[in-house]
Amino acid sequence: VKVTDNGDGTLDAAVSYKDNNNTIVNTYEAEGSVELEAIKELEGREWQEGEKYTFTLKDSEGNVIDEQEVSQNGTVTFDTIEYTEADMVDENGNYSATATYTYTIEETTTLPGGMTNTGVITATVTLTDDAEGNITAEVEYDKDDTIVNDYSSKGEAELTATKILAGRNWLEGEEYTFTLKDAEGTVLDES
């Protein structure tokens, strides 16, 4: 501020700002993170040597964020997703104390024959900014966070038997019955 005495009992004051900038800017920063995961289970058979399954994490627009492999029953953990205050801005450019992001987790390996899986997992991440620089993330999975591969196999066998009568000829009207039983003795068929 430059004050000038006009000599007539009045003063003039002129205000100037360094670099003509009279704005004070407060910058707010916040951060947080989340790790999404899925559990892999194989039912109906044992894991085979060298068998691996790939899981893919995608954002709500279908963009691949991460892929991870698993080679035994257990948890698949994806790379950490980082959030900042910029992630708390809605599509209209307005800042909000909460934001929601949706991701999908799916098994993207071509499954061997006889195997099915339980489908895609949807993970909804709700972010909350505590106004002190911390963003917390709460994850909710749409069903279970487990992808189960069920293995089942089936096949058919036609069993035949031949009756041989040794030591005498068949008599007229003579019949024999064959009974097929399982390991527990349950009758499966008779002819």
Topology:
Layout: E1 2-5, E2 11-14, E3 31-34, E4 37-43, E5 53-59, E6 64-70, E7 74-77, E8 81-84, E9 98-107, E10 115-117, E11 121-129, E12 135-141, E13 146-151, E14 179-181, E15 187-190
Parallel strand pairs: 4-13
Antiparallel strand pairs: 1-2, 3-8, 4-7, 5-6, 5-9, 9-11, 10-13, 11-12, 14-15
Which properties best describe this structure?
single chain; 191 residues; mainly beta; 5-stranded antiparallel beta sheet; rod-shaped
Account of the protein in words:
- It is a single chain.
- The chain is mainly beta and 191 residues long.
- 0% of the residues lie in helices and 43% in strands.
- The chain is built from no helices and 15 strands.
Strand order of the largest sheet: 6-5-9-11-12
Q: What is the count of β-strands?
A: 15
Shape: rod-shaped
Q: Structural class per helix/strand content?
A: mainly beta
Which regions contain 5 or more consecutive residues with pLDDT less than 50?
none
Amino-to-carboxy terminus distance: 115 Å
Percentage of residues in DSSP E strands: 35-45%
Output the number of helix runs: 0
Order of helices and strands: EEEEEEEEEEEEEEE
Radius of gyration: 37 Å
Largest sheet geometry: 5 strands, antiparallel
Mean pLDDT reading: 88
Percent range for helical residues? under 10%
